[in-house]
Each structure stands twice: as structure tokens, then as C-alpha cells.
Amino acid sequence: MTKAMGLVLALQLVTVPGVHAQERLRALVPERPAGMVTDRADLLDATTRDRIEVRLRRLRDSTGGEVAVVTLPGLDGYAPVEVATEIGRQWGVGGAYEIGDPRRNAAAVLLLVPRTPEQRGEVFIGSGTGAEGFLTDARAGEIRDAMLPMLREADYATALDVGTTLLADLFARELGSTDSALVQPRRERGRAGWVMLVAGIVLVLALLVVVAGLANGPGRGPPPPGIGPRRRRGPGMAPVIWGGGFGGGFGGGGGFGGGGFGGGGFGGFGGGGGFSGGGAGGSF
Q: Please, what is the end-to-end C-alpha distance for the chain in angstroms?
């Protein structure tokens, strides 16, 4: 065997497994959706899914910032950061704007994998390159920490509702929106204010569940979100136990305002999203 042939064989041994691994990673990413929420793990009731969808569409329409929510049943051995980054790139989350536009790549991917007897649950918040100045790894970690008490109770719907509310608040403030349906009131700073903000969000979600139950009434259709299988529990059903890293972060308390959209469709994400692997995640 000549040296040239040996070099070619060595390169094949190195590159072929790498190419195969990259193909597996790409195959793990769902097709680019028409909306902001892709629930492949079937964790969201219809009411919560619609509320998150409206919130994130409103954020995109008022600021240009894009947040994609993705649930997957598993990660096929890949790290959450790898999958979230690949989703952001393949879907082009935040990539609809021209180079030089401050809205370009002002984006995030919120990835959630449920806990099962066979695997740990995983959550990761990936930051687009245009959002890294404000959705820092530390800030993404604070939002993750706010979700963890609900994730540990398998209350995935409430966790995603809270996480997207906090992301929408952050993006709206940083991108100049004063929309009261996105921006949360702030009266305090530091850990106490952060806890009050998240507690206020959970309280509002719980009230929505109660109102939905009263509207249905006995024998008037399905029960409100959260009454049924454990993994699809509706908003506000989990006990909230605060702890961990909440230093700095958001201040203030209170819930979020209402509001929605009339007419029109949603065209999905643009092309060429920029994600470099920034963000924060964890297991539960």
C-alpha cells in the first residue's frame, strides 16, 4: 500500500463516521414548521399551545425577535445544545432579516425533552447570535431555573408557558417594545423580584385554568387543561418550590396582559439562522 492510499484510507476512517453522525443529527430535526411551537413529544394541551403560539407570534410581529419552542421525545444520544443549535440553523430562526439589520438572528430556541423511566429530562435555551448580548448564558440559566420546579413535577405545559413568557419579556424590552401583553411590570430588582415575577405568571395561568373549568361546566365538553395524563398537565398545577440561582435577573412582579391577533396566517421562520451554541440547559 502506498503512502497516498494509506492517507486516503485514514481520512475515510475519520470522516465517514463524522458525516454519518451529522446526518443523524440533521434527521433528528423536524421539518421547518409554519408556527412557533413544534410539540413532537405531545406535551402540550391545545389551550396552552395556542397561548404560547399567540404570544410568540405577537413578539415576532412587534419586535422581529423569534423564539421557537420544540419538544422532542428523545435526542438519540446528542447533547441538547447540539440539537437546539442545529434546529436554529436548519430552520433559520431569526434569519429573515438582511445582514446589518439589528433584528437579524435576534432569536432563541427553547428545547424540551420529557423525563421517562429510560431517560433523563432535558431542557435547553439556545441563543441566536443576534440575541447573545442580552440572552446571555447566565440569563438563559435564570429562565431555565424558573422552569425547573415545574419540569421536575412533569408539568411541562406550565414550564413552557412560564419560560416563553420570560423570554418574550426579555426580547420585548431589549428590542424596544412596550406591548403590555409581552412586557411584565417590574417593581423590584434581584432574586426576590424574579421570584415574584414567575409566581405572578404561574398565578395567572392557574386562574386561566379555573376560568376554563367554569366555562365548561358539568357535561359541557372536555375538562380544562391539566386534568388528565400527567405529562400534559395544564398551567398552574405543580407546586412551585424556589431555589437555586436567581441572582440578578428580572425584577418586578405581576402577570401578563391579554391580547391576540385577527386574521392572517403565519409564514414560519426565515432562512439562514445564526446559532453558535450559546445558551444554558440542564437535566431533571
A: 52
88 within domain boundaries: yes
Alpha helices in the chain (DSSP H): 3-28, 46-63, 80-91, 137-152, 156-174, 190-216
Is residue 269 domain-resident?
A: no
Q: Which domain holds residue 178?
A: 29-257
d(CA 268, CA 239): 35
Count of the separate structural domains present in the chain: 1
| pLDDT surpassing 50 at residue 76 | yes
Average pLDDT over residues 17-28: 84
Query: By the 8 A CB rule, do 90 and 57 touch?
Result: no
Residue-level pLDDT at 111: 99
How crowded is residue 31: how many other Cβ atoms within 10 Å of its Cβ? 8
Q: Is residue 17 part of a domain?
A: no
For 171-184, what is each residue's pLDDT tens digit?
999 999 999 999 98
